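Instructor's aside before we start: the two examples that follow are unrelated to each other. I chose them only because their records fit on one page, so don't look for a connection. First example below.
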Amino acid sequence: MITFLSSLFLLLHLKHIYPLPVELEGKIAILNIQVFYALYPLNTFFLLLLSILWIYAPLTSFLKLNVEFNFFNRFKLFPLIASLILSVVLIELPYLTRVVFIGVDAQWYFKTLNQIKNPKTILSMFTYEPRSFYLTILWFTTLLGFSKETAVKIGPAILSIIHTIAVFAFIYVITKNKFLSGLSSLFAIFSFQAIVGMYAGIYANWLSLSTAILSLTFLIKAIKKNLKFIIPSICLLIISNISHPWFAAINFLILILYALISLIYSAMKKFKEGLREFLCILSLITVNVTLIVFAFIKHLRLMDAIQINQILQSIKLLNVFSFFENLDFALKFYVGGFFITPLIYLLGLASTPLIFKNKILFKLFTAWFITTLLLLIFSDLWLKWRILYLMPFQILSGLGYIVIMKNLHKTSLTFKTLFSTAIFLQLFNYTLQCLLFIPEY
């Protein structure tokens, strides 16, 4: 009730409506914050524990996972549709009361978009600007009759839709439950990718990560079902790579480690099954190598080289000694402190038994977290929040929610509804406060 009232007051304040005395509303808001951040002292612990789930996940092998969830079969796609609508409404909500841009890089996108006069400008921009693909999307939006300012403002809504679909598709491939996958897609809206993406205006990075998730979704389908799915996986990987080059470099490292883990697994256990998986991953790695070679032949874009060089210079062995101090500082003071969300990490921990029982998922997330955790440990302070942004917490929290819901299958519908409502209301309120907090630029 406290969270509901706090969210309601925030929405009403946008229209300058104050149903209760301001002092009383303030007390309710403070109480809601205290409830949400009750586990604040454990935030870093939960985050790091989630990052090393590949170490302790085998300990959960004795746990039995319930697979039944037969409720709401008539409304399978309703949660996804609701998620897609909410993904647009929430992301665009800050612009209802503001005329200027919000987010650090939004103004840059507007200025650069104004420089694009025709398709030739776009094509030439691809030779020197790493964010050209997202700029192309914005430019096509203007061809539909929108002004350049409007295009920049509605661009994040497009990204939010893509990200929501990506998370839904990934989780559905694992769980085969449209209703629960649709509910879990809400975690894409309440994710760091959405709110930090808006705060920092790192739209190209957001697009790159979302398309990478879709690429991995089709990779899993290619491994488990039919090799024809490797084609859309490759296409989406190319889009991801050209959307944001330095994330592409990190994704490349993840795929290499994933391939090595898969190769070791195939040698130790099921050779044919592991070999198929290895060959699918190898095809994506080959595409990455081809793109890298092509970039060098065509003279690597200066901005790409500068960005990758900045990352390499940021990785130092001595950073391990200040890791905890710098991580704590980054969590508290970078991008509005938005990464301090214990509930997201706690739900993610609940996904551990499901991830371990799905060997493809276990190998993939092992590679993903080993790569990003090592970068997190050895990187300079300024880079840590960018590494955190690339970690798949939204997917893990969605899977964790499904594990909990399936284990509550014997409880009453009322209890399941109240449990889900409590979680989603808390995260909705958190997302709403974060988005309305983003400064103007």
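Example two begins here.
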Amino acid sequence: MSIPARELTRSKRRIVLVIAIVLSSVATAALCSCATAAPQEGPELPVLPSYTDQLSAADKEKIDFRNSIRALDPCGYVDAMALSRIGKPVMSGAAGFVFGPCEIWFDGPRITIDLGRVVPDAVPRVVAGTTVWIHHADESGNSCSAQLRLNDSYGVDFGVTLRRNIGDPPTPVEACNMAADLAAAPTAQQAGRPLRAESKYPRMNSRLASIDPCAVLGKVGPGHRPVLAPDFVDYPFWCDFYLDEGDESSFRTVQYSYRSYDHMKPLRGQRELTIGGFQALEDPKPIDTAPGTCAIYIATDPPDTASGAQTETVEVTARSGCAAAHTLAEELTRLYHEFAR
């Protein structure tokens, strides 16, 4: 399934991201005070890039956290035996519009696996001696998430969405039990630090995923007072920031997504161009954005003429016009050529 990025406004894209990472509204689950799975060592944190010297201590901590999980493969926490209890997958790996999570589709449920901060208001549940944390159990019974905490900072989330027909009775127990079973499975506990670079799942081994989107601040930040935007501060494949704190016109974004090649063709004032050797699309007036905003989409995969074919895409926006957006795009492609592995 793909979501045409051209059709999505900025607010709609955020809604898509929220749905993919956490599946709506908290419910309760059974409480039990049994032993938690043995905590795993957190990954060694990389040396902070030099651009973080421009940031506040709080923003440095956010970058530090993103760097610690960016290279990890969420598909690597999936237990084959637990999957077999659900059925036979019809699709797995990276899919849809949102970049980063692992998705596994069945002829029925959809499983989304991702890494994130410990969910503070989750409800503990013990499954076969392992404590997992239930959260975002939808009142309709259609979705539920369970988190296995890997250390005090973050965990791996297993979100379950049940496809159901209109009028079917809610079954929250089914969704939450399925999520909890996946989170408590042996592979999830023993995986350690599975890497995207070693993933066996389609499209998880991504060169683009190795690039810190905030690293563009090394180019555009000096001489300014950059501050990270408060939205999705822990998501490692987005970087929203103000080049100068308090100046709305200095807002910039760098976001990774999947985009259909069909939507890399110019329409209504857009133009096709090449940046850093990659096919790109410039939109000087994106729908429902602040005045002066310019967006550029960069396709980092080789061109594919097949109908519906998708490409990993870098989307950059700048509220101060296309010249500023081009600066971001050119720097990101430079980083890709120099550092992507």
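The CA atoms of residues 70 and 209 lie 7 Å apart.
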